Every structure is written in structure tokens, then in C-alpha cells.
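During the reporting period the student researcher (J.K.) took over the structure-prediction task from the postdoctoral fellow and processed the backlog of single-chain submissions. One of the processed entries is reproduced below for the supervisory committee.
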Amino acid sequence: MDWLDSVKWDRDGLVPVIAHEVRSGDVLMLAFMNREALALTAERGQAVYWSRSRARLWHKGEASGHFQQVHEIRLDCDADVVLLEVSQLGRAAGLPGIACHTGRHSCFFRRLEGGRWQEVDPVLEAPEKIYPSRQGGAPTAVAVRGEPLGEDSGQDVPAPDLLARLAAVIESRQPGQGGDPATSYVARLFAKGTDAILKKVGEEATEVVMAAKDGVPVKIVYEVADLWFHSMIALAAFGLKPADVLAELARREGVSGIEEFALRKVRQREQEGS
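J.K. obtained the following C-alpha cells:
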């Protein structure tokens, strides 16, 4: 029997999940997983939840770089609650990680005192620093692995300038723009160089193929989002923007794919002959 079959999923196919930090012993958060999220968590060794508000998989830390490294996955006696033993990543060594979107170490920062809820844990990092796109307005809802445009906001997919906004976030992670490899997944990729970036693009392309072979729509969308995201990092590494790609697609609009391929071969022969 598949180990996933032992979990008592609720009527929506979900199970509550508690994230417990190994080092500090703190309970960091409560979230939910569906079957796919739990399988991915076990496979990747990082927490992947199911966002009920956005109805999609949510790789914890995709918006902030504050990932959860999973050491153990446990199931309670009734098989209806999952416990993750994790390390909360995303900050320099020796500093407590941030699990809460408010910038606190734990989501459980309110304590009942004298009949009132008191905030007893400090904000470790301003939310607008963790989520740059939240400055000056409501957060967006789209997030992809590494650097998102908002986490679990529940809003609709934003307007067509999404790519430009995401490109701006990626650009801000460049070494020359102050990107910090200690706190940013994208900055770490930039620091490793173009070979590492291109390797990730290849890996994500392979995962798209595998997801398509599985035929699970939500998984295909998740992996294509990863591929697009890493492709945008590659563009930025070479000084290019999504607008350059969109301009090329606009040039091809209305042109037969067969014709475009033939013209490309002609141009290639001309370049080789010059």
C-alpha cells in the first residue's frame, strides 16, 4: 500500500500539518497539504504546502527565500495530522529563521494575558523587506520557487505586467544591486555564475517533461512556473528582459511556424557564409 494511503485526508483531500523547528523546539506554523504536496515534501526535503486561498501548491519560502528544510515527517496516532521536523532557513547562521509572513520567527506570536491577546515575539525582519512587492499596495498572488510576488494572499493572478514586476525583483538580487546570497535564492544562483543558472534551467525543463508525462495539471503548472522563473534569471544574467522575448514573439505573430523555421535556416546560412 502506498504510504500516502495511510493518511486520513479530509473531504477536501487535505491534512493539517504542524511545522516544528528541531533546533529551537518552537512550533512555527500550521498549514495544509494535499497528497501531491506531501509527496513533493518527502521527495525534495523541503516543505511544500497546499494554499487553500490560491488553490495551488505552495513551496514554503518561494516568496521570501525562507525555506523549511525537512528532517522528519511524522503522522499522529489518528493518522489525521502530519508533523514536520524542520530547520527554518533564510537568515545568516546563528540568527532565528522566519516562518511567519509578519516577519516573526513563528506564526504563534500572540499569547493570552489578562483576557487579551498580547504580541510577545518581535518582528525580526520587516515584511516589506521579505516581500518587496508588498510595498505601497496590496500583495499579488503569484509565487514561484525562489522569489515571488507575494505569499498566500488569495488574490487573483495579477495584470499582464507581472513579468516586468518579477523581472524587477530578480534584477534587485543581482550582486551589483545588493543581492545577498545568505537570504535570497536568486542571489545565490547569481553568485554561483551562469553555469549554475543554466543547469537549473535544464533541470526545470526536465521536470516539466516529467510532469507532463504524469498528466497532472496542477503539477504541470507548478513545474512550468519554475521553468519560466529560472529562464528569467538566465535572461537577467545576460542583461536581457522578458520584454525582449515578448518582442520576438510579437514579431512572429501571424507568421507560420514552418515559414519562421525556414527563414531562420536561411539567416543561419547567411551568417555562416559571411
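The committee noted the following: Helices lie at 35-44, 127-130, 162-172, 185-192, 194-214, 217-237, 242-252, 257-273.
J.K. will present the remaining backlog at the next meeting.
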